[in-house]
Amino acid sequence: MGRLITATASLLLLLTATAPAAGERIFTYKGPDGSIMFTDRDQARVPGDYTLLSVRKGWDYTPRKLTAKIRDQYDADIEYAAISYQVDPALIKAVIHAESHFDPHAVSRAGAQGLMQLMPETAAYLRVHRPFDARQNILGGTRFLSYLMGKFDRLDHVLAAYNAGEGNVRRHGGIPPFPETQRYVVKVSELLNTYRPHFGESLAQR
Predict the structure, then answer these.
(1) Is 117 within the bounds of a domain?
(2) How many domains does the chain have?
């Protein structure tokens, strides 16, 4: 798991700029340490010694209206991942809700894929070869949550790292001052309280 520190933190990094609108360009850069960064900033506005790898148009998706059937259809996979990595199933479900609105085919404007919104290189490192396969994506995202829980003592810092990158949380000594990340932490925390009664006693605590 050693390389996960650099690979996943950089891949999940969202710069302080707001997310690009659909149709805008997404730049992919490689840092001197091999880390990959996705951003809407061109070379002149990217800090550090990064090399441009590719440029593509931004991606977008529209969250659909949720029903109980949509929300609960992945519960078996969530419980399997929860047991496998000792993570609260309510937390996994809350992250899925916040990340993709339970759409297994969701693709973000930055290129994150599937239920738990894994960046392509992160998915590959986590051995998620089919990111749009619900079980594979949930297992990969849960493995990453478990990794972050081993790095941070506070859940809000874990959530901030999942959204903005481990490096940003360490750099700011807590939740980064990014409005998107701050909203994300609050949203997932609220959803966590919503889903806890759904699962009853946490599988991760059994």
Answers:
(1) yes
(2) 1
